[in-house]
Amino acid sequence: MTALSAPVSTAPAPWTCPFCALHCDSLALQPRRNGWQLQGSDCPRALAALAHCPPQASVARPLVRGEAVSLDDALHTAATWLLASRAPLIGGWATDVAGARSAYRLADRLGAVSDHAHGPALTAALRAQQDRGGYTTTLAEVRTRADLIVCVGTQPTAHYPEFFRRCGAGEPLASGPRRIVFLGATADTTLPADTVQTLPLTGDLFDTLAQLEALVAGRPLAKAPDPLRALATQLREARYAVLVWEGATLPAHGELIIEALNRLVGLLNQHTRAATLGLGGSDGGYTAQQVHTWLSGLPLRTRIGPQGPDHDPLRHDTRRLLDQGEADALVWITSFGPGLPVPDTTVPRIVLGHPACPVPAGDVVFIPVATPGLGSAGHAFRFDGNVVLPLQRVVEQGLPSVGTVIDQLLSALGARA
Amino acid sequence: MTTYRLQGGRVIDPAHPDLPEHRDLGLRDGHIVELHPQEAIDHVIDATGCIIMAGGIDLHTHIGGGKVNLSRLLLPEDHRRGLDALALPDNLLELASCGTCTPGTLATGYRYVQMGYTSAFEPAMVAANARQAHLEMGDIPILDHGAYVMAGNDELFLQLLAEGADFERIRDYLGWTIHATKALGVKVVNPGGISAFKFNQRKLDVDEAHTHWQVTPRQIVHTLARALTELGLAHPLHIHASNLGVAGNIESTLETIDALGGLRAHLTHVQFHAYGKEGPMKFSSAALQLAEAVNANPNISIDVGQILFGQTVTASGDSMRQFANSGLAHPRKWIGADIECDAGCGVVPFRYREQSYVNALQWAIGLELFLLVDDPWRIVLTTDHPNGGPFTSYPHLIRLLMDKSFRDEQLSRLHPDVAANAALKSMTRELSLHEIAIMTRAAPARLLGLTDRGHLGVGAAADVAIYREDANAEVMFTEPTHVFKDGVLVAERGTIVAVPTGGVHYAEPAFDRGIERHLAARLRATSSIDLRHRVIGHDELCGCCNGGRLLPAECHAAFGATAA
Q1: How far is A203 from A221, CA to CA, in rounded Å?
Q2: A358 and chain B in contact, CB less than 8 A
Q3: B20-37 pLDDT, tens digit each
């Protein structure tokens, strides 16, 4: 029986890229003297992120108001400032599952508001979901059955360079040809031209989708342009249509666009099959959203207030709270790269940051942390929401993880009074 | 470790009918032990006027994984009271966590333990989503946990079955799936139906062919049940049968039992699968037919999935049936998903109403099943949390089962046709404490193969709940005086007093390790996760579960000689 029970996987683990929510996980990464060798992709987003992460131990040290200090001293100062705060805000949340688990404990301990660095985009998706729900799909389904992919107001590879490769664009589909339509966006020129079609908007995105929905529903719409009419027919005739949107590229009130797409999918599902696929959730966005939700019961933009957990997707917005003077201390968590700068504010800031993160002047405690997926192992949610991937430690950065730092900070804060 | 002597109580321990009810229990080093009369004891607990039971075990409760968290995301209203927030815990050991039908994981642990439950099992883990399920369950404090992985709707399984692949290959693939996802069992949900819905099929009867793969639910169920039997899993195939919620679905349910051909299986939330289509509303109770089938087939065990009135949310892997039910959503919103050529999900909020004929009858059907099945060892008390109602309603459900006059009083408040005509009205059976202990502890432990749980014999894990006897069973079972988890006092009179991390149960079946290599190309073709990331290792599982104990269950394979 032992032969049968032996572990099946002996191949070395591949590398999961932590730098966008596609989390491509078939890659290999090797440290080289002057940088990294990435195999399996030439993704510019991954390469740019890796350029900020030298494959050696980091020389970054904790700082208090610009002065190098020991980690203990930095934690002591951070604890002192946080204990004096009456309305703390935990922002950024750019971390892995373990970091998010600890961040929630910190929010609970402090009675803080929590919001992610990509709060506006996450909130658009959340509000559409809270209001009407939706019907979604995942990468493997798209790859094996989507015969029509409509990118609505987004050219996905602009921010997610590996998107179409992960969707299997260009691979044969068992059920027939696959068409990719860009509605109100420029086409990805690397796709086979005969499978691609671009469509301009008719008015703005809101108007276009309203018309498309009416056409799909079969309502007479004399003024509708022919290409949009043709798209409605394509959608109705598709076996499995996938509507792709991207939270970060939506206009103001983007939740109404997402809701319109959900309605469209609902209409199509009465007779054929369709689903939406939302792009977003990078920098730990979906990870934070999921972990905060399962621990507390409520999504981000919640304050663990004295009356109880208070969720408000509009009021608990990082930028608004800082602008209105409604937060008097900020914990900013940004572990994946230097690209999410500390928001402009004068309140005391405790930054758990990537070593290359610019450190602002003023009342700032800076604690450099390991990069998940490079300097520490962990878990992250993929953009399609259902898949959690393991992140690997590939280099000794000599830095603690976000989770470790927060656990130490919680010790420094002591028990609740 | 602290030693306890529990004395003066009435020990309700159905697994040990020979031991006296009035006996002292010793707790030391996490186990029930024989205490020497002269032994120094740290604490003596006077349980006079109390009953003592093993910790409760919920073998079917949706507590972790994608659709549970989607329910939370969909329903912020479940996590506040009108415009007001739900109060913070007044106990420093508890973190803020709230919700009624989909509580946060932290609240899930606290509330279960406060009722005297010490283990809970997620029945519908999607293989592609296994890490999330384990991460979420790892954040449920105190409770031991585990999950059943969903099979029978993954395209690879259906493809193998359609091609007439060797049974051994299919069996090994299932063994590999259990190994990869660290599952304790396997569940099939609407056999073939979730996949069929992706191909735009809207209904699938037991002998109807999947529109693409041309295999039937009958074949799927039989193949999976046989594979699990040969792999030697303690828990037999967990079946969410075809046609959930459809009037007349008793036919599918009986056909599913027939498809098993005598192989062991556990039919879950059978209340949703016991509907006839008699009467003016074309919707009737088929509880008697189903109970007769269960009584006649000793290979079958069930859990009920009782409904209770009020707001809840139905979260299921059955995207086909949830789509069909989505028009009934209350409030009017719902979430569905097709997942990774593997599974699906549907989350539909729902309010069960006393004045609805259908809901009232559903309520009666569940209770009728409890009262008509003869052998309590083959029926488990569940509400299919949260689908029939939240797990916090268990004490109320127990009272309904133990108290005929209370049950009649409730029945009289329902839709008049149901109140007047339900067979339930004439049922006089009242379940005993002994039977309740079987249905909530001893039977689920036995059905899951948890040999050291669900009983209070020497050597058992010291998961213990002490309830003060009360004529009102709901009062009695709402707040135990003491709850122990592995010998640690974790709750006292409704207050959490310690928050240890629970363990994770999973099965370790033997299977031909060559299957991964053999199926590699196909595994890659139907998944977007790198094959090398499909298997959750022990260290990783431990991390997911916050360092909780790993509790592997040995499997006694029935094919060793030939496969080695």
Answers
A1: 15
A2: no
A3: 999 999 999 999 999 988
